Amino acid sequence: MHTGLKITSFAAALAATFGTAYGVGKSLDPAVEDAAPARHESHGEASPSPDGGGHTGHEARPPGGLQISEGGYTLDLRTPQVTAGRRADLRFVVRDDSGRAVTAYRREHDKELHLIVASRDLVTYRHLHPVRAADGTWSTPVDLPRAGGYRVFADFTPARGNAANLTLGADLAASGPYAPRSLPEPDTTARVHGYEVELDGALRPGAAGELTLTVSRAGKPVTDLQPYLGAYGHLVALRSGDLAYLHVHPNGEPGDGRTEPGPAVSFTATAPSTGTYRLFLDFKHAGKVRTAAFTVRAGAAAGEERAEPGERPDAGTPTGAGTGSDAPESSDGHATSDGHGH
């Protein structure tokens, strides 16, 4: 990814953990990106097409995650249904145009494949990092807290030829008693496990805008963020309604001589349209990854982003499990209430 580059397309992140898997990294916190330091590609950034023509940074490209097949590749979700509140193995295969399972990927942001699972109401969010089995099957443990519809996003780049980075999406159902929930109202402050994250900037439709997220703890700025997937922060945005996917990385990276490890992490992003989006920021501190979530409106008039007094949502808790330090945390590589898992 070129830092500071305008993001004009979208992608989703995937990875899976399988007992007999090989070579896709450890099940605990990833730290540095396995890519040439001089070049980073954002998920959803313009990239070469299979025919060698490539996409330029100014070409319109459909948002990621809305299709199950694209560019000759198909996401084959082998586990289309799980039971809410019960841990299960989520399995899937990426197949090429001949139906064969793909077993060769380019490593991007320290992984061959990234996985995002989000509920249709955008209240539950999981960023998972699995491992691949030798036969091309991906698998990861997942525990979804509530019944309802979910979307699974696979973000990957096949190693074959000049294949482009792809984001494929498939529907997942969690069975059980279903009670719909409303999307939290916009707010510029998120609280998660004793941390407070402030959002500054706007997500603009059709134009690049800078988003700055500042992390503090107990009223003091956090100046020792740890690298996570080759950066000090990892940002995903999902459009409410169809869950179109925007995935960007910070303006700067650890070790570049100018990017500080907090308290501020900035991103450049472009929304594909007006509308409401849910932002999920993953950041690592004290050896654990936390996720802060925000609701924003792209194209909203000035002053419309902040919730009215008394309407502040539990923005820092995508799963709705609570916002304080009493929310459960885990460093064992499994998903926690703050939305992160391996």
Describe this structure in words.
The protein has 342 residues and is mainly beta. It has a domain at 21-175: Immunoglobulins (Immunoglobulin-like). It is 0% helix and 35% strand. The chain has strands at 21-22, 69-70, 73-77, 81-83, 88-95, 113-119, 125-128, 131-133, 137-142, 148-156, 166-175, 189-192, 195-201, 209-217, 220-221, 234-239, 245-248, 264-269, 275-285, 288-298. It is globular. The two termini are 23 Å apart. Mean pLDDT is 77; it is low at 1-59 and 301-338.
Largest sheet, strands/sense/barrel? 6 strands, antiparallel
Radius of gyration: 18 Å
The CATH class of the domain at 21-175, by name, is: Mainly Beta
Provide the succession of SSEs: EEEEEEEEEEEEEEEEEEEE
- The geometry reads as globular
Binned strand content: 25-35%
Q: Uncertain spans, ≥5 residues at pLDDT below 50? A: 1-59, 301-338
Number of helices: 0
- How many β-strands, per DSSP? 20
CATH superfamily of the domain at 21-175: Immunoglobulins
Looking at the structure, the CATH topology of the domain at 21-175 is Immunoglobulin-like
The strands making up the biggest β-sheet line up spatially as: 1-8-9-5-3-2
How far from one another are the termini? 23 Å
Give the rounded overall mean pLDDT. Answer: 77
The CATH architecture classification of the domain at 21-175 is Sandwich
Q: Helical content, roughly?
A: under 10%
Overall SS class: mainly beta
